[in-house]
Amino acid sequence: MVSSLSTAPFSSFMHSQSSGLQSSFFSDRAFLPSESQELWQIKRGLVRTYTWDSNGNITTLGIWGTGDIVGQSLSNVTPYMIQTLGTVEATSQVSNQWNNPEAILSHAQQLTILLKIISIKRADDRLLSLLQWLAQRFGYITPTGTCTTLPITHQELAETANVTRVTATRLIGDLEQQGVLSWSRRRQFVLLKPS
């Protein structure tokens, strides 16, 4: 809900100067400043962008990692929040001084994939497709399956898949029982290889 959202974590970052651009370091679950003309390039770590409606229902706009560009000027949505998922290093630049068509194209492609996933009708198929996309995008191959280091909660998955947290938790439990998924207490998961 909106009432639980806070801008207090804005102070949870440090600045470092490198390569002429200013790097900022943000702690877990901190918010990056999201001025209307400011873009952030993620140097290390993961962020989630989201908005909410007048009833406080959150809509995830994307989950972004190293090399990705985020900012309100790319979405033209208000409100627009950028929240870290773990420790993040990012550089800031004013959007009218920034020119990187490849990053903008990548941003549009990732949004298109996420839109396709959230349009899947059945909640179980939608959540599994989301987990597969996250594993492909942010995971690495192990002997048992694809492991992610994405520290995401059931609530954040639910908001991204457009289901309730209770439904997301039940479906994750079902996937674990089916041997499709292994969920860790560190908010990470492994998509298991078929037996």
Automatic annotation (TrEMBL):
Keywords, ordered alphabetically: DNA-binding, Transcription, Transcription regulation
Annotated HTH crp-type domain residues: 121-195
Highest taxon above the source species: Bacteria
GO biological process per UniProt: regulation of DNA-templated transcription
Alphabetized Gene3D superfamilies for the sequence: Winged helix-like DNA-binding domain superfamily/Winged helix DNA-binding domain
Coiled-coil residues: none
SMART domains assigned to the protein according to its UniProt record, in alphabetical order: HTH_CRP
GO MF entry, a single one: DNA binding
The protein, known as: Transcriptional regulator, Crp/Fnr family, putative
Species lineage: Bacteria, Bacillati, Cyanobacteriota, Cyanophyceae, Acaryochloridales
